[in-house]
Amino acid sequence: MKTIQIHEKDNVLVALTSIQKGEVINHLGKEITIKQEIPPKHKFTLDPLSEGDLITMYGVVVGKAKVNLASGTLISTNNVGHETSGYGNKNKSYDWKSPNTEKFLNSTFMGYQRPDGQVGTANYWLVIPMVFCENRNVEVIRQAFEEELGFGRTNPYKNLVREMKSLYQKGDLKAISKLQGIFEANDIGQKTFPNIDGIKFLTHQGGCGGTRQDAESLCALLAGYIHNPNVAGATVLSLGCQNAQYQILEEKYKALNPHVSKPIILLEQQKEGTEAQLLSQAIKKTFLALIEANKIERKSSPLGKLTIGLECGGSDGFSGISANPAVGHVSDLIVALGGKTILSEFPELCGVEQELINRCVEDQTAEKFAYLMQSYSNAALSVGSGFDMNPSPGNIKDGLITDAIKSAGAAKKGGTSPITDVLDYTEYASRPGLNLLCTPGNDVESTTAMAGSGANIILFTTGLGTPTGNPIAPVIKIASNSALAQKMPDIIDLDTGGIIAGEKTIEESGEEILEYIIKVASGEIKIKADVLRQNDFIPWKRGVSL
């Protein structure tokens, strides 16, 4: 099979392999002569289109013809522009047929059960700065703890530099460029605390100098990280005079967890005195807290205790056909089993708003989603940008030529289940079911936000490859195509390319992903992002970021 029509209403076909100019494609009895070479993942017209005609894909409007287009013409940014249908109030009830969950009804994962009822897939201790002024002190604590407690890894590239230095000193410059081999990182010693998966050190560039709203938003995000079930407690470093005062963080945390408090160690540099006093106190108090955190052990927990973040990045023309729908099936399974899922990246929901509005369980939830989408879109337009500028050069090169094409495929990660809640940035997911979370499309800003809203596992689909990870939520990387999985095995955990090859169904791939999630959530598998120590953390300042 060389092509696929994703939805019966679509007037473009997707090339699954390279199609040559002049080649004749037979689609449902109709012969289409290809007007120019069609690269894999790209789209071409099924019927002739006139200038101004709408392009339909995934059953929704995704663009508009800029010129007349003959049947079999490659669509590109030169001949097709961004276009979407409008959206309004929820206009019909939504009937959902949940997937068959019989295979997973009795499945459990070995998680860390918290006093507030949440269950973690990991057991981390956090070290957090309230302001960027404390970033250096956080780094000093990291250097003191990681290697000594067995959480560190060797830097493989030190060996490479050492070898190059030796060759340079010998005067053998030609040999430097001919060095062969891959240098591997290794864990440093045994862990002192076997029931602690790591100490995670967050740094950021906020906390002062911005608006008061930025400081409050940062505190809300950090409170969400402390409240996340993957976290046992936190050490918080404050300078003292910054906008992001500890009292704001405390207020935000108590709003999330009013009855059960996790251990939080606060140290303020302007009160402690010297840097040495601050660091000594922070290290001693943290070590004693680690002793207590190490006492908790994994216990069998139902899959309904999982909160799965749904993310995509470095997307390609196959993402919306393979990896995203497979993750969507996982979302439906988790929802049917009583768990939560979170779909974010609002700029990448552009064009499918009405479908999502109709899936909202409550009118108030639908209205909140429409309000957040419109406010975000207006903010982008006010600075001379817009959602139509969301696709990256890599996206466009691989066939996602309009934001609506990218969005229609990205939304497939949310499956088909009803939407139980809509969350503004930093709001915490509390209702079982599919939640929509307002974030940018920026991969790291989005994954950062999902962990702050309670995700204890994140599924991340990619067609081009990205090493993104998160400090506290395991980020499982899923390739949309087998070529990527083979080319970048150091960052890819799972491959859904079998869907494109016709070897597996979306449902089969989704079930395989859920089986993998259970192993990761139980601590049986270390994902690639964690092996690479990929701890990406970027708070969103609520300015315009797509």
What can you tell me about this protein's structure?
- There is one protein chain.
- By secondary structure, this protein is of the alpha/beta class.
- The chain is 32% helix and 18% strand.
- The chain contains 17 helices and 22 strands.
- The chain has helices at 135-145, 156-170, 173-177, 212-227, 246-256, 269-272, 275-293, 323-336, 353-359, 363-382, 393-397, 403-410, 443-452, 482-487, 497-500, 506-521, 528-531, and strands spanning 3-4, 12-15, 24-27, 30-33, 43-45, 54-57, 60-65, 80-81, 108-113, 119-120, 124-129, 198-201, 231-238, 264-268, 299-302, 307-312, 340-343, 419-423, 433-437, 457-462, 475-479, 494-495.
- A 7-stranded parallel sheet has the order 18-19-17-16-20-21-22, sandwiched between helices. It has a 4-stranded parallel sheet with strand order 12-11-13-14, sandwiched between helices. Strands 1-2-5 form a 3-stranded antiparallel sheet, with no helix packed on it.
- Helix 14 (482-487) links the parallel strand 21 (475-479) and strand 22 (494-495).
- The longest helix is centred in the C-terminal third of the chain and has 20 residues, at 363-382.
- The protein is globular.
- The chain starts with a strand and ends in a 15-residue tail after the last helix.
- 49% of the residues are buried.
- The mean pLDDT is 94.
